[in-house]
Amino acid sequence: MGTERKKPDQNNPPAAAPAALPRWNLADLYPGRDSPEFKQALTDLEDQSKALSDKYKGKIGKLSGQQLGEAIEAFEKVSNLATRITTFADLTRAVDDGQSAFTADVMDKVRKAGDHTLFFTLEINKLREGDLLEKIAAPKLAQYGPWIGKIRAFKEYQLSDDVEKYKHKMEPVAEEAWRRLFDQLILDLRVPVRGQKLTEGDAVNAIDNSPDQKYRHEVFAAFGKTLAGEKKAFALITNTLADLKAMDDRWRGFESPEDSRHLENQIDRETVDALTKAVRDNYTKTSHRYYEWKAKKSGVARLHPADRNAPLPGEKGRSYTWDEAKEIVLTSFEKLSPEMAKIGREFFDKGWIDAEPRAGKDSGGFSHPATPDAHPYILMNFYGTAGDVMTLAHELGHGIHQVLANKQGHLKSDTPLTLAETASVFGEMLTFRELLSREDDLIARRNMTAAKIEDMLNTVVRQTAFFTFEQKVHGERRDKGELSPERISEIWLETQKASLGPSVNMDVPGAENLWMQVPHFIHTPFYVYAYSFGDCLVNALYDEYTKAADKPGFAQKYENLLAAGGTKRHDRALAEFGLDTTDPEFWKKGLSVIERYIDDLVALDAKIESVLKSKDDFKKAADDVTKPATNDNDQKPVVNIRIQPKGPGGAP
Amino acid sequence: MMPDKNLRARFGATARKSGHEARKLTHGPGGSAPPPTPPPVIEEKKAVPAAAPANDDVKDDAKPAKPKKTGLPKWDLTHFYPGLESAELEAAKEDITTRAENFRKEYEDGVTYLTGPELGEAVAAYEALQVDLNTIGCYTMLMEAESLGNFAKTAALKKWQEETAGIIGFFEDGLCEMKERDLMTKLSAPELAPYGPWIARVRTGTSTLDADVESMASDFQSVNRESWRRLYYETLSSIRVEQGDKKLTVDEAWEVLTDEDLSVEKRAEMRDLVAEALKDNAKRMALIYNTIVKDNLTDMEIRGHGRPDHGENIANAVTDEIVDTMADTVKNSYSKISHRFYAWKAKQHGVEVMDRALVGKPIPGEPTEDKDYEFADAKKTILRSFRKFSPKFERIAKKFFDDNYIDAEARPDKETGAFSLATGPGNHPYIALTYTGSLVDLVTLGHELGHGVHQVLAEKKRGLFLSEMSTTVSETASIFAEMLVFEEMLNGEKDPARKKQLLMEKTEGMMLNGLQQLSYYDFEMKVHEARKKGELDAEQISDIWVQTQKDYFGPAVKMDNLDRYYWMQVPHFFDSPFYVYSYSFAQILVSGLYQSYKASEKEGQAAKEEFVENYIGLLETGITRNFYEMFKPFDLDPETPEFWQNGLSLMDKYMTELEKMDDKPVAKPAAKLKAPKR
């Protein structure tokens, strides 16, 4: 089945995508979807799964430590193959939605094979603790300790084998199918603006990045309207997934909807609650304060939501070529650790990145870890904005992290979510510093700082608001029954307004519908707090870095943290830096970083104002002498106010 | 929400889905989780027309310009409670909750230890509770049907029902967990013995799975499958057919197509527009359908059923073999009946092969003016035809009119579709339809009254649990009633042109139900088979669809683009897979029964009375006898092809009469036509 490749929409007023953006090369996984190699892999998977089941089903409890270690090794091998296959299918679809039936079929086959191996973890969970402790003395088994611990955390929530099997079999027509439907809905959206039909990705990009305010507002309104056209479907998906989750929670005995996620993240509810409470308590000091400043700067009482992330008035965002972006990101990584920059360079040199925006491709960005015997893949859509450079840094941070963690082998490479955003956010921070250090124009510096603050707010504050939204939606679905699209919108506005504050006008039409396009709500419920967690945590970690006298020593510790993969919980990993997430002060520390940035911004702005004013006075005086006053436009001419750039990390 | 009633053949059956779906869900052991749907609803009302597809082909008398009927009856729901906010309803709820709690206290954890007499007593108490719960469930449904606006007010009540059903859900689990041998011993107690068939039903299909898996399955399906169904309906109703700058819903577009004055060109154009609109939504529809089929296949696999329709067959209390015998016999009759009919119709139009758009046009010489039937006249005609069959029938039907159990008014906020809802012993069934004065409406009223009479008889005789009926026989009374009404009309019609029209439309209607629905079943079986190998895209599904439809229509009809995408519009495929064959089943079964009735009439009064008595006995059976035994008094055996051929022969007979009616006798084209290869 050949697929028609659609032409990319040429509807991106903000910045034309520069030529020759890279596409990834999936041949490192398999030569093609119809290749004999891929078909063979599917057959192998089925055979190996059966073989594993023949050899070990019903016998896990009888194995010696050494044998159990061997069994897990065999399981890891099969599991690795399954992941390699699904990665290939996933990534094939991610850049071409025409492949979604192919991907679904592959997933189906993998799942069928998975039916054979499902017993494995179930039986591990049936081992008595005493027996296990005895066995684990065998070195072959000992190496898998962290993985076994992770599996057994689910022990008390496990259902009977047959029920687990039933659920496993039904997943493709349940959660998975609803997620596919969501993806299809988003991909099929077309937002009519000025005679053009924007894809969802283009619309979001225009709202966030277009320098043309009028256009932003138009796209925003049209986007809201387009979403409203599918509100029933979005609400049905949301309700059904929440309902399925509630059912699962009820069966397994999870108390609150987010508990299963916490368990998976190896974190306790109290820590997360402490974090989200700290963030909420600081809404006024962080986001409210910033948006008030921005509104004032924009000359309005309240910001239109489409202006929330917009460049400051009168300032055109600088645009970057792909090569520039690459150079900036790698240079910034190099300064922390040449080793990491070296890994990062491989992504560019070996075709591990797909950055070209095109129709039928997923919006947003991700770095897929794939398998240790392959390498990660990065997907993003590069339009050339500074934000895209940061996205590249973010995903590349992930990618490097994954390369390092993959050394742990397939089963132990999976970093707990709490630390999963470490390298990505840290990478962004490094790149931001690099960008800032290269800029000696005062206004540009101010705007970059503002953009960074916006990023942090979007990560810390906004994701916490998302999390609160999810808690309310899931809670209400469970306790009161189905939520109408209007009710979901109400909760959305309520949580958004609380986090954004009075200076953002969430009453403009269309704003109420934006919950519909947040993929995390659908694909990974309650995932979002990990962003807040990661960002706050990295802020604190970065603080340590700037303060560290021994930078190479820090880099080494940092690399160790990343390379630990799934073998260390966040508390143990951070203890080596002297950080403690159970300490409430820890979170305040992370949040205070944002506040310091805002302080800095305000100071910078005051300086600019005063320089501009004196310049203006001077100019006016000069003009008065030379010619009659012809109005020059506001701040447009960027006069040469340059100050000495500060060293990396010095600004806040 | 669903294809308009206008899609229904003039003499096609109004589908009223039996509650087997709901029962399936509640029969599984509930485990720790509350059962998903309140069990009481005996007959899930359903606005789905039986023979949806080609039915624009049968023209409809209802013209848009027609003045609205006035003076139509509206039902009186105060037979139940004074209102949703009434103290009476509150009191009933409180009473049920208390009893349910007491019931739980008394029996939870101890069901297996009860003796036969104790268990009999418990089932009786359980039934009494379900009767009352059912009453409220029916009241809720009727309120919602009365005005869609009431949906906003019934949510809390429905949640209460769900919760209350959950309180006593353990009981059926307990019944399922019992060992068969123990149960057999207990069943010798006279208190329990009558409930044997019901207990067997409760335990049906649960044996292959562990109780907790069944319970999970029940929980899971009530969330997941329900939502896919809803998505299907919501998607269907969101489709817009763009005609110039007009945007029509699919229903509205079909409304246009039912206008027989519409030229062939315009019809073809409109059919094309509908096809386009469906095609535009093909991707999502294909995803929904793939998911539902896959769900079905997985469920079958888990339960160890060998074929995808096995679950439906069990629910219908028929064997796979009976279904196969029927399906084969019907498919073999395509050339003798449907191919022959369409060839005859083509001939009427003076062509060998009809364009698809021509199929729906009146034949030359056919009266184009519509007859208008006042409601009072419809009532008279129906009651008269019932009386000729049996005065008891007439008496029961009359009560529906006299005590306001019928809602025939057209109201904008009223749910579309027609149904008769059985409301449990102690209550009386209710009928809803929208009466506009067309012949379809008259027949629909007869159809629903057939259901109504059946429901009254069965519930009175058997109570709530034992009056449940399998889908295969649940349409018996309704279609039989239609036959009675039809013959009454035919005999009363003096105008030869109208007579020909009536006969033609009846034949076509029977064919759409008896044969075309079977081709739908054929489609479903083939899709399920293909889906086993992997996901199907919309075009692949359409290919299978076109093939099965060609088989049915034969060489005298040239299919068009809409025929290709029509499957998206058949709600049954999405809502209740394999349900469709029960229309064929019922149509052919009843045709055979009717043949027997006519034969008994010829034999004389005594034979006729014996037939009527047997027939009433059949309607009163409920679930107390199996399918095979039910027909024994009539000397009919559904396990033989002859049983089905007997029913098909009625269509054959009508077809022959039709051919005789032509001025110039037409040679039977069927003899020349070969059935298409499959």
What does this structure look like?
The complex is a heterodimer of chains A (652) and B (678). Chain A has helices at 36-56, 65-94, 100-124, 129-135, 139-142, 145-152, 161-170, 175-188, 200-209, 213-229, 231-252, 259-265, 269-281, 284-297, 322-336, 338-349, 386-405, 417-420, 422-437, 442-480, 485-500, 519-523, 529-547, 551-563, 570-575, 584-626; strands at residues 191-193, 196-198, 353-354, 366-368, 377-379. Chain A has 652 residues and is mainly alpha-helical. Chain A has a three-stranded mixed β-sheet with strand order 3-5-4, with helices on both faces. In chain A, helix 8 runs antiparallel to helix 11, helix 15 (322-336) packs antiparallel against helix 16 (338-349) and helix 23 packs across helix 26 (584-626). The termini of chain A are far apart. Chain B contains 27 helices and seven strands. Chain B has a three-stranded mixed β-sheet, with helices on both faces. A two-stranded antiparallel sheet of chain B has the order 1-2. In chain B, helix 13 packs across helix 20, helix 15 (375-389) packs antiparallel against helix 16 and helix 24 (581-603) runs antiparallel to helix 25 (605-619). Chain B is globular. The model of chain B is unreliable at 1-65 and 664-678 (pLDDT under 50). The chains are: A mainly alpha (652), B mainly alpha (678). At the A-B interface, helix 3, helix 7, helix 8 and helix 11 of A face helix 8 and helix 11 of B.
